[in-house]
Amino acid sequence: MIRRLALLLSMALLLVGGCGFWLFGSLKNTPAAVAAAPIGSPRAINDPDAFIYIPSSVDMTQPVQVLVTMHGMGDNGQNFCQSMIPIAERNGWIIVSPTFKYHDYKNADSTLQDDLTFLPKLTTILDSVPARTGVATRNKVLLFGFSRGGQAVHRFATLFPERVAAVAAVSAGSYTLPLNSMLINGRSQALPMPYGVANMAALTGHTFDFATFKQIPFRVSVGGADANPDDTPRAWDAYVGTTRVDRATNYIRILQNVGVNATLAVYPGVGHQVTQQMVDENAAFLKAALDNQAKRFGHAPAIGATSFGAIITASVRARR
Fold first, then answer.
1. Which one, out of 5, 116, 154, 187, has a CA that is 20 to 30 A from the CA of 239?
2. What is the pLDDT of residue 28?
3. For residues 233 and 236, what is the distance between their CA atoms, to the nearest angstrom?
4. Contact (Cβ atoms closer than 8 angstroms) between residue 174 and residue 155
5. Do strands 50-54 and 66-70 pair parallel, antiparallel, or not at all (unpaired)?
6. Residue 320, SS3 per DSSP
7. What spatial distance separates the first Cα and last Cα of the chain, rounded to whole Å?
8. Could you count the other beta carbons within 10 Å of the beta carbon of residue 217?
9. pLDDT for the residue numbered 212
């Protein structure tokens, strides 16, 4: 009898130790393994298509907010989201940070094909998060992206506005305007994708949902020194200007003109980078946008009130 009890105790210890070893990433994560992790322990799933971080502060009693972070050219999801992990811990948000192999961002056709491939794929990734993590999630996500990822997050909101709670885009090199046409040199010119949304139905199978899109709050950030025209594709010059600063300014003004709550922050002396101040202030914007919607409508996929934003010059923190 004693020998049998000792054997059972040894097996139990092995199972507990093995599960702990498994859950923290030494072996491949599976939904069953992830779901078994104790509440109060941070977890990470590093799959080929996305890095997913589940904070220790996650509230398992209700659907959890997802923050999508989108990297730029040559980066990857796991690396890019690291600055957002403390923010996810503080707010109890799950981070979903996909890795996409972008092609030539200066070629409009290449940009369009990437977006038509990767952005629907992102919806599939988001739909899979509950199964991968064992955690129920809210339908609307927060979006944060830098450079080519800044392009991706605002275009995801353009294609799938019903899935978006708020957008923080940093230093995008080009923008898709929520317009079918615009005046160029005094003449109306159609704006097909990726410049506008005139042919969205033909390319995606659904029309641009302007009513839902204009309820999404936007914050666009850019460094004041991120102003080299050689760093941006020329095909957008006639629509939004030549530099990242010009394009961010014009995109925000167009959003405001059509009734979107949109704010621009320009950081003097900052080049093409994401500073900690940018991270902190964009995270604060996303949290405030979420709290504002929750106060009015709860956390269901309800729509917030339309208002106008502002164009500001950020006061840059002293570098240490």
1. 116
2. 30
3. 7
4. no
5. unpaired
6. coil
7. 67
8. 25
9. 97
CATH code: domain 40-313 is 3.40.50.1820
Q: Tokens at residue 23, please?
A: 């859950």
DSSP 8-class letter at 56: T
This prediction's pTM: 0.81
Say how many CA atoms lie within 13 Å of 14 toward its Cβ.
6
CA–CA separation, 231 and 214 (whole Å): 29
Average pLDDT per 10 consecutive residues for the chain, totaling 320 residues: 42 36 29 43 90 92 95 92 96 96 90 95 96 94 97 98 98 97 94 97 97 97 97 96 97 97 98 97 97 67 32 44
Q: Is 172 exposed, middle or buried (0-12, 13-18, 19+ CB in 10 A)?
A: buried
Q: Residue 207, class by beta-carbon neighbours within 10 Å (0-12 exposed, 13-18 middle, 19+ buried)? A: exposed
Instruction: Give the C-alpha distances (Å, rounded to integers) separating 191 from 17, 180, 200, 206, 245.
Output: 59, 5, 10, 16, 21
Beta bridge partners of 46: 51
Q: How many Cα atoms within 13 Å fall on the side-chain side of residue 267?
A: 23
Query: Alpha-carbon torsion 204, 210, 215, 216, what sign?
Result: positive
pLDDT at 84: 97
For residue 64, give the DSSP letter.
B
Look at residues 188, 145, 144 and name the one whose alpha carbon lies nearest to residue 165: 144
Amino acid at 3: R
Contact of 81 with 51, CB cutoff 8 Å: yes
Q: Which among 154, 160, 150, 152 is positioned nearest to 124, based on CA atoms?
A: 160
**Residue for token pair 């393994």:** 33
Contact 144, 70 (CB under 8 A): yes
Q: What is the pLDDT of residue 240?
A: 97
Please name the residues in contact with 152: beta carbons below 8 A apart, sequence gap of 6 or more.
Answer: 70, 100, 115, 118, 119, 145
Q: Is 99 helix (H, G, I), strand (E, B) or coil?
A: coil
